[in-house]
Amino acid sequence: MPKPNLNFLKALSLFLLLTLGWNASGQTNSAKAASEKKQFRAGAATSNITPKLGVSIVGNFHDAIAKHIHDELHARCLVLDDGQTRIAIVVCDSCLVPREVFDEAKRLIHEQTGLPLDRILIASTHTHSGAAAASLYQTEVAKEYLPFLTSRIVDGVRRAINNLAPAKIAWGVGSEPNQVFNRRWKMKPGAVLANPLGGTDQVKMNPPIANPNLLEPAGPTDPGISIISIQSPEGRPIALLANYSLHYVGGVPEGDISADYYGAFADRIQQLIGADHLDPEFVAIMSNGTSGDVNNINFRTPQKQQPPYGQIRFVANAVATEVHRVYQTLEYKDWVPLSMQQTEIKLGVRHPSDEDVIRARAILAKVHTRDMKSSQEIYARETMFIKDYPEQVPLIIQTIRIGDLGIAAIPCEVFAEIGLAIKEKSLFKPTFTIQLANGWSGYLPTPEQHKLGGYETWRARSSYLEVDASTKIFDTVMELLGKLK
Questions:
Q1: What is the pLDDT of residues 317-328, one digit of tens each?
Q2: CA distances from 265 to 93, 193, 248, 286, 318 (A)
Q3: Count of the separate structural domains present in the chain
């Protein structure tokens, strides 16, 4: 039997190694690459945050008590994980939630899941028919509701983490200009616009519809609808996060609890994409963009009278239809990098002068009922609250990177022009802002809008940050977006 040619065998082995790509561990190079492939994962869940009947409803000058649940409220939770970074985004069907509540929820989420505190974004939608998680005007916080709200947020994030699974992601931008109108109006010369703090304004918020004295809106609107869609590798819908700069819609009977158009949108988009009754459940989320000076009222033309919830359904359907159109064009990515930046800044408070306090006390001395009737009385009471505020207050500002997409999170009711400037100047295309995130620090007008006056600038718990607050927040957002890049 002839001896094997050892040189030939060595050459053959080398040929096989080079040709087939085997490595020292016995794997082919392609198999090794596959085993090391980055894995993107996502999980989503909803958590019911509907209050008991009898709690106060916040969002109006006068207190209202919940007498009926029209539709359930939810904390809608999304967790994303690129293999190195995990972030959570939660949007709650609530008008306003103070930072202390969100901070406690984050603490418990971190304690129970290990998720870092600065990797959690929690925001409110701004429905005006939710339980009072904060005190405002003549509505006092429903203190018994806060532990329940906190625990349900925590449960929602834990369930979303439990649902983490391989996923793919896509994003896009649509436009619906017909449902957003600037609510601050410049009036024709001669119109006297007295305010309850004793001064006069140059603009009026929510003027009478078709008023002959209407001149022009005091600011722009943002018609953009930003969309993030997450699916399983096989194409099963997992979640959809949308963002639109619309204050809220309303048309809700007094005493009703409702998620407003935010909840109606979630139901409608789920129907349009055929994601009913999935397991795990599909989660649709509508977050509020920069709508501090924007609502759904066309002040130029009288609107058709709608039955209760009629306008909510109309707007939700219009926005969902546009989202569905964009959804059908999206191209998904198997993996994208995630990163998040957070910082805390301190901003000054606009305190009342000694003369303002004296005037407020004189007004309140004449009030002999618990239910104040005039705006002067209500704002006199607000003056007494603001005089005891600290010189500065802390705010959390966040930014998120999802691939080439940017998100800014601001704890205020942000004017549309600020959101538009963030979109324009951001290094990430597209970028959008989630307002009322990680707390509630009142309205955020620009310095120029402060000069015009109007409801959103009247000093109260609803508007107390320094005049230059928007400039400082904008600069902080730009800095944090730059760090993400």
A1: 999 999 999 999
A2: 12, 36, 12, 7, 9
A3: 2
